[in-house]
Design goal:
heterodimer; A: alpha+beta; Heat Shock Protein 90; 2 domains; 5-stranded mixed beta sheet; 3-stranded antiparallel beta sheet; elongated; B: alpha/beta; Rossmann fold; Arc Repressor Mutant, subunit A; 5-stranded parallel beta sheet
Chain lengths: 364, 207
C-alpha cells in the first residue's frame, strides 16, 4: 500500500526532473553558474533513477533513511542553489526556484515514510532554504509581497507534507485493521475445525458429568468469542439479545446442571434496549423456575420476530405443575409477568404435572 | 434385520471412529471418506442407504455431497455449530437433516436410525433456520411456494422443542402426518432454492 504511494511519487519525480531540466535549459541566458544548475539537475535525475530502480527490484530498500535523507538534501540544494546559479536580481523571478515540483516530491516522500510531523518539518526546512536562496541571490530587504510569496511556498509545502503523512497513517491503519480481521478469521477457522471439535468429542464421549460440563462451558465461551464479535451489543438504542440470553443459559447450566439450547431466528432484529432487557430478565426467571421447581434437564429457548415485536418460547422437560393451583396465587410467575407486562407484553403458561412447562412471551 | 449400509465422511479420523463406535450393530459402514471427492466417489460406487457427512470438509463439504448425491441416498449432515447458514444450504441442497456433533452417543444413534427409516431428522435449531428462510423468501416475494399455516405451526413447535409425537397430540394429527408435513417443508425449501437459482440465472443472463 505504502509502496503504491511511493511508486506514484516516483512517477511524479520523473516528470518533475524533466521539468526542471527544461526550465534550466530555457533560462540558460540568465545563469551565472550554469555548471551548478546542471550539477543539481543531474543529482535530481540520479536520485530519481536510483529510487525508481529500487522500487522495481528491491522495494524494501526504496525508502531507507539514507535515501530519504539524500532526497531531502538534494531538494535543499536545489532550493538554495538557485540563488547562486542565477544572476543577481532573479530572487523573485519565477525561474529562481530551481526545482519546486521536485522539492514538493521530497516533502511528500518524507511525509509518507516518517509521518505528519516529519513531513511538516521537511517543508519548513525547504521553506527556509527558499528564503536562503533569495539572500544568496543578493536580495536583502523584502517587501511584504515578497515575504508573502516566500511564505506561501512554505505553507503549500507544509500542507502537502502534513497531508501526505496523515493520508498514509490512515491507509496504514485501515490496512492493519483488514489484516487483523483476516487473522481473526484464520484463527476462527482453525479453532472451529480443531478446538471446537475436540471439545465436542470430550463433551460427548466422557461419562464424567463435571468434565462434560466444563467442555460445554468452554465450547460456549469460545463460540461466543468467535461469533459474537463486533459492536453488535448496542447500536442506536437497539441491542442484540443473544449474548444476554446465552449468559442466562450458562447461569442455569452452572446452577442446575441441565442443558439449555438458545435458538434465535436468523432474521431476529436488534431489539430496543428496554425490550431486550425485559426479555432476557423474563427468560432468566423462567429458567430459574425450570431448574428450581421443575428440576428440568433440557430447556429450549426460541425467539422469533412476530409482527412488529418478538415471540419467545421457553420450554422445559421438568416436572410441570398444575395451572389451576398457580392461578390460585402462588407467586412463581409474578416476576415474569411483571417484567413483560410493564413494557406492554403478555405471557402465557402451558403446563401439566409430569409434562414439562412452556412459557410463551410476546413483547412489543 | 438387514444392517443399514452407511458411508461415513469426515476429515477428522477421530470423528469417524467415534461415530462408528456409537452406531454399533445394525449399521454396516461400507466406506469411510476423508474428503468430499472421496465421499462422492464412494456413494456412486456403493449406493449406500445412508450417508453421514461432515458439513466442512476439504473440497466443498456436506453442501457439495448433498448437491451431487441428495437424490440418490439419504444424507445426514454432521456439524459442530447449529446456527450456520451453510447448514441451511446443505439441507436446501438435498440433505434430509443434520446432527450436532455434541449430541450424546445414544441420541445420535437413535437419530440416525430414524433417518435410515426415512424420517427427516429435524432439530429445533434447523426448524428455526428454516422458518427464518421462508420469512426471508416471502418478504422478497419471489413467488416461491410459501409455507401453509399448518406447516408453519408444525415448524414452530419443532423449534420450541417438541417431538413429532407431542406435536401430533397438540394438533390432533398422527405423528406420521407431522412427519409428512416436515418432509413437504424440506421439499419446498429444496424447490424454492432451485427456483431462486434459476431466477437468478435468468435475470443475469446465465444459460
Amino acid at each position: 500500500m505504502e509502496l503504491g504511494i511511493l511508486r506514484g511519487i516516483a512517477g511524479f519525480r520523473w516528470a518533475a526532473s524533466a521539468w526542471i531540466a527544461l526550465v534550466v535549459a530555457l533560462n540558460r541566458d540568465k545563469l551565472e553558474r550554469p555548471w551548478l544548475a546542471w550539477l543539481l539537475v543531474g543529482a535530481a535525475f540520479v536520485l530519481t533513477a536510483v529510487v525508481a530502480a529500487r522500487l522495481r527490484t528491491r522495494p524494501s530498500a526504496a525508502s531507507t533513511p539514507g535515501l530519504v535523507a539524500a532526497e531531502l538534501g538534494i531538494a535543499v540544494a536545489l532550493s538554495l542553489g538557485g540563488g547562486w546559479a542565477y544572476q543577481g536580481g532573479n530572487a523573485f523571478s519565477n525561474t529562481l526556484a530551481l526545482g519546486s515540483p521536485w522539492v514538493l516530491a521530497s516533502v511528500l516522500t518524507v511525509g509518507v515514510v516518517y509521518g505528519t510531523w516529519a513531513g511538516a518539518g521537511a517543508a519548513l526546512l525547504l521553506g527556509a532554504a527558499r528564503v536562503g536562496a533569495a539572500f544568496a541571490n543578493g536580495a536583502r530587504d523584502f517587501d511584504s509581497g515578497q515575504w508573502l510569496s516566500l511564505l506561501s511556498t512554505t505553507v503549500i509545502f507544509v500542507l502537502a507534507g502534513v497531508l501526505a503523512g496523515r493520508v498514509t497513517e490512515l491507509l496504514r491503519r485501515a490496512e492493519s485493521e483488514v489484516a487483523a480481521a483476516r487473522a481473526r478469521e484464520d484463527v476462527a477457522r482453525t479453532l472451529h475445525d480443531g478446538v471446537l471439535q475436540t471439545l465436542a468429542v470430550i463433551e460427548r464421549r466422557t461419562d464424567d458429568p463435571t468434565l462434560s460440563r466444563m467442555a460445554r462451558e468452554q465450547e460456549r465461551d469460545l463460540r461466543a468469542y468467535l461469533f459474537d464479535v463486533g459492536p453488535t451489543a448496542e447500536r442506536g438504542g437497539a441491542a442484540d439479545v443473544g449474548p444476554a440470553l446465552r449468559a442466562a443459559a450458562a447461569r442455569f447450566e452452572g446452577a442446575y446442571g441441565g442443558r439449555v439450547q438458545v435458538l434465535l431466528a436468523p432474521d431476529l432484529p436488534h431489539l430496543p434496549t428496554a425490550v431486550a432487557d425485559a426479555l432476557s430478565g423474563a427468560v432468566g426467571e423462567c429458567l430459574t423456575n425450570a431448574g428450581k421447581h421443575g428440576g428440568a434437564g433440557q430447556v429450549t429457548v426460541y425467539v422469533e420476530p412476530d409482527g412488529s415485536g418478538v415471540a419467545c418460547s421457553v420450554r422445559d422437560d421438568g416436572a410441570g405443575f398444575d395451572l389451576a393451583a398457580m392461578r390460585a396465587g402462588i407467586g412463581i410467575t409474578r416476576s415474569i409477568r411483571g417484567r413483560v407486562e410493564e413494557i406492554g407484553g403478555r405471557v402465557e403458561f402451558d403446563s401439566r404435572p409430569g409434562a414439562g412447562t412452556e412459557v410463551l412471551l410476546w413483547l412489543p | 434385520m438387514v444392517a443399514v449400509r452407511v458411508v461415513l465422511a469426515d476429515d477428522h479420523p477421530v470423528w469417524r471412529s467415534g461415530v462408528r463406535t456409537d452406531l454399533g450393530d445394525g449399521f454396516d459402514i461400507v466406506a469411510e471418506a476423508g474428503t468430499t471427492d472421496e465421499a462422492i466417489a464412494a456413494i456412486n460406487e456403493l449406493a449406500p442407504d445412508l450417508v453421514v457427512c461432515d458439513l466442512h470438509m476439504p473440497g466443498g463439504g456436506g453442501i457439495k455431497v448433498a448437491q451431487s448425491c441428495g437424490e440418490q441416498t439419504s444424507i445426514v449432515i454432521l456439524t459442530v455449530s447449529e446456527q450456520e447458514r451453510d447448514l441451511l444450504d446443505a439441507v436446501a441442497a438435498g440433505a434430509v437433516g443434520y446432527l450436532v456433533k455434541s449430541t450424546p452417543g445414544p441420541e445420535l444413534r437413535a437419530a440416525i436410525q430414524r433417518a435410515a427409516a426415512g424420517e427427516p431428522v429435524f432439530s429445533p435449531a434447523l426448524a428455526a433456520l428454516v422458518l427464518g428462510e421462508f420469512r426471508r423468501m416471502s418478504k422478497q416475494a419471489t413467488g416461491s411456494s410459501p409455507l401453509s399455516d399448518r406447516e408453519r405451526e408444525v415448524l414452530q413447535l419443532v423449534a420450541r422443542g417438541y417431538a413429532y409425537k407431542d406435536i401430533g397430540e397438540r394438533l390432533f394429527i398422527s405423528p406420521k402426518t407431522v412427519e409428512n408435513h416436515v418432509r413437504n417443508i424440506l421439499a419446498k425449501l429444496h424447490l424454492s432454492r432451485k427456483q431462486e437459482l434459476i431466477r437468478y440465472a435468468v435475470e443475469h443472463g446465465i444459460e
